[in-house]
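Researcher: We plan to redesign the surface later, but first we want a full-length starting point. Tokens attached.
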């Protein structure tokens, strides 16, 4: 048993039972060890959850970084979509990620910010847009994952529209991008 195998089993348990039901006792039983054995790798459940959140974000954390000359608008949309897809890969992925600190990818965040700034986006609006996009995406996925037991569109009363999560996400993301575009040196449609 090593740290990586504990995290992998904890994520598998998360997918089976959900965040509220996961416990170190249950994880230890799944691993066939005594609960104190887990404390060798993780001093607290909070430490375990932080490691799980970091591991769950691996698909987004390893996505290609933006390249010089790349369209920043297309990259901004792709980056937010990648974050959403990654959160949706795990049961309660948004709840697991909420409140976590991105300690492992600070260099990647700096490189993303440097890309936006070098593309003509002022630093302050770039920071706020990245923060707003991240929180918006997290909130959208929280709602989507909480809605897993929602009634099917055909089961809704007349006049109550079905919630289309992806369409709502894309519309909100477009609004954030549109707001950010107003702060750039070369707005969409302008020529350099």
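Model: Full-length starting sequence:
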């Amino acid at each position: 048993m090593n740290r990586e195998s504990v995290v992998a089993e904890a994520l598998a348990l998360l997918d089976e039972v959900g965040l509220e039901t996961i416990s170190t006792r249950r994880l230890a039983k799944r691993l066939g060890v005594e609960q104190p054995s887990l404390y060798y790798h993780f001093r607290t459940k909070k430490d375990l959850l932080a490691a799980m959140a970091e591991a769950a974000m691996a698909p987004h954390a390893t996505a290609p970084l933006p390249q010089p000359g790349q369209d920043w608008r297309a990259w901004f949309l792709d980056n937010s979509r990648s974050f959403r897809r990654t959160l949706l890969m795990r049961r309660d992925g948004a709840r697991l990620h909420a409140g976590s600190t991105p300690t492992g990818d600070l260099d990647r965040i700096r490189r993303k910010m440097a890309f936006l700034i070098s593309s003509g986006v002022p630093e302050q609006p770039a920071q706020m847009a990245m923060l707003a996009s991240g929180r918006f995406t997290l909130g959208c996925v929280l709602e989507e994952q909480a809605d897993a037991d929602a009634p099917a569109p055909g089961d809704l009363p007349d006049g109550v529209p079905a919630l289309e999560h992806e369409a709502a996400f894309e519309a909100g993301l477009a609004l954030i991008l549109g707001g950010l575009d107003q702060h750039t040196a070369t707005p969409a449609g302008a020529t350099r």
